[in-house]
Amino acid sequence: MADYRLILSLLVQDYSYREIEAMAHCSHRAIAKARTVADTRGLSTKPEVEALSADALDQLFTDGRKSGDTDFVPIDVDAVIKARIGRKKPPLKVLWARYLNIPAPTPSTRHYRYERFCQIIAEHVRTHDLTEYLEV
To answer: Which one, of 70, 77, 75, 68, lies nearest residue 126 by Cα?
Structure first.
């Protein structure tokens, strides 16, 4: 993602689009978007740009595709790992199906897809030095 604070500060200092592209390593489109925001918000000095908070910048330049982990039903990774230890080792597909049965706390919350579920479990195994091979 483009550094819009840097782009805005360069715009108010009257740098050309080509100079900003070279300095900020961004596209012409990102600069044009920043120019539109600067014009509509009346940003004309560097201190005004620096006074913008990170949240304000996110709101000004959001494109609607940003979603965090809070939009998903959390996975009980420890329970999944515990289920994989011992004599009976249910496949991850079965454990994912159990995860899908957990009700979502809010209507906008959704479950992880199988591929992402496996990635999260594999990352946990890797970071905690669990050496058992997990069948996918």
So the answer is: 77
